[in-house]
UniProtKB/TrEMBL annotation:
<dbReference type="Pfam" id="PF02146">
    <property type="entry name" value="SIR2"/>
</dbReference>
<dbReference type="GO" id="GO:0070403">
    <property type="term" value="F:NAD+ binding"/>
</dbReference>
<protein>
    <recommendedName>
        <fullName>protein acetyllysine N-acetyltransferase</fullName>
        <ecNumber>2.3.1.286</ecNumber>
    </recommendedName>
</protein>
<dbReference type="InterPro" id="IPR026591">
    <property type="entry name" value="Sirtuin_cat_small_dom_sf"/>
</dbReference>
<dbReference type="InterPro" id="IPR003000">
    <property type="entry name" value="Sirtuin"/>
</dbReference>
<keyword id="KW-0808">Transferase</keyword>
<dbReference type="InterPro" id="IPR050134">
    <property type="entry name" value="NAD-dep_sirtuin_deacylases"/>
</dbReference>
<dbReference type="InterPro" id="IPR029035">
    <property type="entry name" value="DHS-like_NAD/FAD-binding_dom"/>
</dbReference>
<keyword id="KW-0520">NAD</keyword>
<dbReference type="InterPro" id="IPR026590">
    <property type="entry name" value="Ssirtuin_cat_dom"/>
</dbReference>
<dbReference type="GO" id="GO:0017136">
    <property type="term" value="F:histone deacetylase activity, NAD-dependent"/>
</dbReference>
<feature type="domain" description="Deacetylase sirtuin-type">
    <location>
        <begin position="3"/>
        <end position="283"/>
    </location>
</feature>
Amino acid sequence: MSSPSTENSIARAAALINDADALVIAAGAGFGVDSGLPDFRGTEGFWKAYPALAKSGIAFQDIASPDAFHAHAQQAWGFYGHRLALYRRTRPHAGFSLLRKWGGMKRHGYSVFTSNVDGQFEVAGFDPMRLHECHGSIHHLQCLQPCTEAVWPADGVDPVVDEARCELTSPLPRCPHCGGIARPNILMFGDWSWISKRQDLQETRQQRWLAQVRQPVVIELGAGTAIATVRHFAHRIVRQHNGRLVRINPREPQVADPRDVGLAMGALDALGAIDAALESMQS
């Protein structure tokens, strides 16, 4: 049973969404939790998901790095190959469909900004032309060196991973241009060789779309302050595009402006409650 203050916040969030001419979805790692995905919150959370790396004392920043591919490609691909297989078999939770429905009701539609590399928005039926994956996508590859600026789909990669050792046992993915090792087209830690052209094109499309909106609402989901990329984006939209913010985060829901709304809830529960409030308003 939610409290009166929570009910009031849900109603205010629904009103902001109802009045907006465009929906901006800003999603961090916490948005995938309701689909069963880990968010790697802190070193302990990461090591719980990857005990083989915990045994070696390898932190997320160590394995999510081009240096890991240069030093021990089988282990780096063990980590990313496991994630690739996990994301491929994960079904997006019902909150994705609610956001797509709301966006379809807006005059200018919707646009997505996400730091997640899992490709879940596309699986959930979102228009790829309306996605901005600011850290890239695990479903695309590039050369480790890199020998060219080429980026290509990972469709042909079918990783087999020894999870007890976090090592790839199938052949290493290779660059079709030079035959060297391929890596995910993801912005990693200490990464000076990430090829950002795919993300740059997405950003250009999003900026072109934002230029036409006049009263957007940003729904920020599962985006914390530890790596604040998504939060910075949300604040910029509110500041530069006359927007308002609905922040959904069970641990860090605070908002600075009283006109905005913060909900200390999980994404799926919050979106379901807002959808019920929207239906009541529109009936």
